[in-house]
């Protein structure tokens, strides 16, 4: 018996993969206690199967399922407050986007949720392959047109190895 999966025994955070035997058997005993030919798993770890044919002969296999961890962070950490800017004037800040993952990720794009009083720009072209423990800068321009509080969110979309979105809150007062 062989345990097979369409997902190469790895899964993204919050997802599951299906493990199944390569052939049909008479009965199955998974290490999870399930007794079907295939099981869905959502946690990393070792999974074992004992499968029996019609003659009662047992076959065994074990696989290790890993979870892909994608970790993107921003500097300054948490959020950014432009503070008080006079209406009609502007201020910019460089936000550093860093890949804290153990593997390269592909960033499919960046955008602002509202993009009315705040503009974002960068020198990289998307999709952008960001190596592990590497970073790039995004320049955020805040240009209030009138007095008041402004809120926006920098959105970073990751497409590989997992589809994930990361958010960085921005605020300022005009």
Can you give a write-up of this model?
With 174 residues, the protein is mainly β. The chain has no helices and 16 strands. It has strands at residues 3-4, 10-12, 17-21, 27-30, 38-41, 45-52, 58-68, 72-75, 80-84, 91-99, 105-112, 118-121, 128-130, 135-142, 149-160, 164-173. The strands form four sheets. Strands 9-16-15-11-13 form a five-stranded mixed β-sheet, with no helix packed on it. A four-stranded mixed β-sheet has the order 2-7-6-4, with no helix packed on it. Strands 8-10-14-12 form a four-stranded antiparallel β-sheet, with no helix packed on it. A hairpin with a 5-residue loop joins strand 6 and strand 7.
Morphology: rod-shaped
Order of strands in the sheet with most strands? 9-16-15-11-13
Sheet/helix structural class:
mainly beta
Q: Would you count the extended β strands for me?
A: 16
- Counted by DSSP, the helix tally is 0
Radius of gyration from CA coordinates: 24 Å
Layout of SSEs?
Elements: E1 3-4, E2 10-12, E3 17-21, E4 27-30, E5 38-41, E6 45-52, E7 58-68, E8 72-75, E9 80-84, E10 91-99, E11 105-112, E12 118-121, E13 128-130, E14 135-142, E15 149-160, E16 164-173
Parallel strand pairs: 2-7, 9-16
Antiparallel strand pairs: 1-3, 3-5, 4-6, 6-7, 8-10, 10-14, 11-13, 11-15, 12-14, 15-16
Key traits:
single chain; 174 residues; mainly beta; five-stranded mixed β-sheet; 16 strands; 57% strand; rod-shaped
Give a concise summary:
It contains no helices and 16 strands. By secondary structure, the chain is mainly beta.
């Amino acid at each position: 018996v062989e345990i097979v999966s369409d997902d190469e025994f790895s899964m993204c955070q919050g997802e599951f993969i299906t493990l199944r035997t390569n052939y049909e058997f008479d009965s199955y005993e998974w290490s999870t206690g399930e007794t079907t030919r295939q099981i869905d798993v959502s946690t990393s770890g070792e999974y074992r199967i004992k499968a029996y044919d019609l003659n009662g002969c047992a076959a065994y296999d074990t696989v290790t399922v890993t979870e892909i961890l994608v970790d993107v962070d921003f500097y300054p950490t948490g959020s950014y407050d432009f503070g008080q800017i006079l209406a009609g004037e502007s201020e910019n800040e460089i936000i550093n986007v860093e890949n804290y993952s153990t593997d390269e990720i592909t960033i499919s794009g960046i955008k602002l949720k509202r993009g009315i009083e705040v503009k974002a720009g960068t020198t990289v072209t998307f999709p952008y392959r960001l190596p592990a423990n590497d970073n790039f800068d995004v320049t955020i321009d805040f240009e209030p047109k009138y007095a008041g509080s402004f809120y926006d969110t920098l959105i970073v979309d990751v497409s590989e190895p997992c589809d994930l979105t990361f958010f960085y809150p921005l605020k300022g007062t005009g």
